[in-house]
Amino acid sequence: MTETSYCTPLVGLDAVVLDIEATGLDSTTARIVQIGAIKVHGGVIDKYRCFNRLVNPDIPIPPSSTTIHGIADADVATAAPFKDVWPELRDFIGTSILVGHATAYDLAVLQRECQLAGIEWRPRHALDIRTLAQIAAPTLAGHSLDSLCAWLDIKIEGRHTALGDATATARAFLALLPLLRAKNVRTLAEAEAATRHAIERDAQAAGGLMATFEDAPTGKATDEPDDKVQGPLMRTDTYPYRHCVYEVMGMPPVRVSPNDTMHEVSRTLINRKVSSAFVEIGDGRHGIVTERDIMRAIASRGADALARPVADIMNTPLQSISDQAFLYRAIARMQRFGFRHLGVRNANGEIIGALTMRDLLRYRASSAIALGDEIDVANTVGELSQAWAKLPVIAKELIAEDVRAFTIANVISSELRVLTRRASQLAEARMKDAGHGAPPVPYAVLVLGSAGRGESLLAADQDNAIIFNSGEPGGPEDRWFEKLGRHLSDILDEVGVPYCKGGVMARNAAWRMSFADWKGMIESWVRRQRPKDLLNVDIFFDGIPVFGDVALGEAIWEHAYACGSQSTPFIKLLTEAARIPGGQAFTLFGGFRRDEKGRVDLKKVGLFPIITAARVLSIKYDARARSTPERFRKIAAKGAASPDAIERLLVAHETIIRSILEQQITDIADGVPPGNKVATARLDRAQRAALKAAVADVYIATDLVGEGRI
C-alpha cells in the first residue's frame, strides 16, 4: 500500500470508502447491523476489493430502521458480533484514508462499538463528501447522497445497503475531484483546510465531520496500525539529490567488438580494472557484457566458452541514463530493473561513460529514491499523482539537510520535465485508444519557463509547447496535436500541475505549431515594436524538449537565440521591458512592503528582475544557456559584468529561492495552495536580514540590463 502524504493529490489517494447501516440514527445508542466498504486507488474504484458484512447488533432492530435498510433480526441472527468483524475490517482499511458521506456518524458509531467490545479506538482520518460537495457546489439545493448522485448523474444500485451506498459514495467522490480542483482544492491537506473553513462558516455542520490524525494514547498496548498519515521520507540521504551522474561515472567506457572472444574481453576487463564492457553493435546501438556474464558462461559451458564471441552472451539493448541526471535517478533505475551497470549518454545520445552499482553503493538512500522511476513507470493519473506528491516532502527533507535551494529547485524541475514526458506518453495512449492513431509527423514537447531553466519551485503550473515537423494551422496534423495537447494538459492538471493561467500550453494554437511556423513566429517576435507585445515571448528562450524528437526542439531553441542575438531592436525592447519596476520592496522606513496578509511577493520584487536580466543578457551576448546561474557565469566570462556583481546576484537568487521554497513547504502542509508570497513575520532576525540584503541587491540585475556595466 502506498503511503499517503499530506500533499498527495486527492486523485492519488489510497482510500477506503465506508458506509454502515445501524439500528438507529442516534450515534450514542445505535448498533451496527451491516458494514460495506470499497477500495479506491489512484482515482480508480477497485470493484474487486470490497468488504460487505452483516453484524449481529446484540439488540433488537427497530422496525423503523428495517423499513429503511431492509435488515431484520432474522437476517443477523447468525451473523458475527462486531468484536469478531472488527479485525477483518481493520486490516481491510489498513492505513488508507477513509471517505464517506456524513462520516461523523459512521465514525462515532464505529468508535462506540469498539468501546463496547473493549477494543482500543484510534481516531481515523476521513474525508466527508457532503462537506466537499458543499465546497465544490455551494449553491446546490441539497447535498444528500441522493441529491449528489442525481446531480452528478450517478445511478445508485442497492440504495440503503452498506456496500451499495459505499460504491455510490466512491463514484460521487471521484466525480467531485475536477470541481474541487477548480476551487483550488487539490491535495489532502487542502481538502482538510477547506473542510475546516467550511465547518467554521457553518456552525450547524456536525463537529468532527473530518476525523483528525492523532497518535494512539500512551500507556496501553494495541495491535492497531498507526493511522497517522506519513510522508514518504523519515530520513533522506541527500547526496543523490545534490550530485549528478557525470560526477561519479567512469570514463571513457570500455568498448569491445561483438566478435571479440570472451577470453579477450576477460583480459581487457582485468587490465582496465572494470567489471563490464560495452559491445559496439553498429548504428549507434550497444550491448553490454559483464564479468558475471562471462563467469556464468564458463559455469554452464566449461572452459571452451572462452573461445566463443561475446555476442553469444551480451545483453542488449544497453540501458543508459543522461550524464546530467541526478544520482537518485540512476539508483532508482538500477533498483527497478535489477541492473548493476548503466551506460551514460550525453545530450547527443552518445555513450560517454559507464556507471556501476559499485560507484553508487555508498550513496544508496531510502525508498524515496524511487521517486524518479515511479513517475517513469506510472500507468495511470493516480499513480502519477502519488509519485508527484512526494516532491514537497522530499523538498522539506532537503531543506532540513541544508541542501542548496537552487539544487532543490533543479530536482523539482527535473521531475516536472519527467512528469511532462510521462504525461505525453499517456496522452499518446489516450489518442490511440480514442481511435486517432499514431502521431502523423515527428514532434517534440517542450517545457518552458522555470522548469526549462531548472528553477521550478512547488507552485509550478503548466508552461509547455509542441513543435511538429510539418503541417498547416488548422490542418489534420494541427488538429491531431491540438487533441494531444488537451490530453496532456488535462493529465498534468489532474496530477497536480494546474493549467497555466496565461494559456501557455500546447492545447492552445499560439503554443502549437509546425517547425516552419515556429521559425516564422520567432522572426516576428524580433520585429515587435512595443514591450507589451513581448508577453510570454521570453519564456520560450528557457524551453527544453522533454519528449519526442528532441533534435527538433533543440533546433528551434537554437534558432530563437540566433535570431534574438542578431536583432538590436529586439534586444532593446527586451531591455526596456526588463527595466520596468516590478514593485517597491521596501517601505520608507526600510521594512518590507507587505500585503494585507503580511506577505511579500518575492517573485515580483526579487526573482523576476534577476531571472529576466539573466535571460536578456544571455540573448544580447548570445550566451546560450538555460539556467540563471549558468547564464550569469557565461555573461561574466564574456566580460559583460564583474565577477563580484555576478556573485552577489547569485547569492541573492539563492536566498530568495530558499525563502519562497520554505514558505511553500509550510503552506502545503497547512493546506494552503503554494505561491510566491512569503510571510516575513515567520522569519527570525538573521533570516530577515539576509532576505533584505538579497532583495536590496536586485538593483544590480536591473542596472546590468541598462547601459552601465557593473
Description:
With about 700 residues, this protein is of the alpha/beta class. The two termini are about 55 Å apart. The chain is built from 27 helices and 17 strands. It is globular. It has four domains: about 190 residues, 2-Layer Sandwich (Nucleotidyltransferase, domain 5); about 120 residues, Roll (CBS-domain); about 190 residues, Beta Polymerase, domain 2 (2-Layer Sandwich); about 110 residues, no CATH class.
Q: Order of strands side by side in the largest beta sheet? A: 3-2-1-4-5
Sheet-strand content, in percent, reads 5-15%
Mean pLDDT: 86
Return the CATH topology of the largest domain. Answer: Nucleotidyltransferase, domain 5
Task: Return the CATH class of the largest domain.
Answer: Alpha Beta
Largest sheet, if any?
5 strands, mixed
Enzyme class: transferase
Catalytic activity: DNA(n) + a 2'-deoxyribonucleoside 5'-triphosphate = DNA(n+1) + diphosphate
Organism: Candidatus Filomicrobium marinum
Keywords: CBS domain
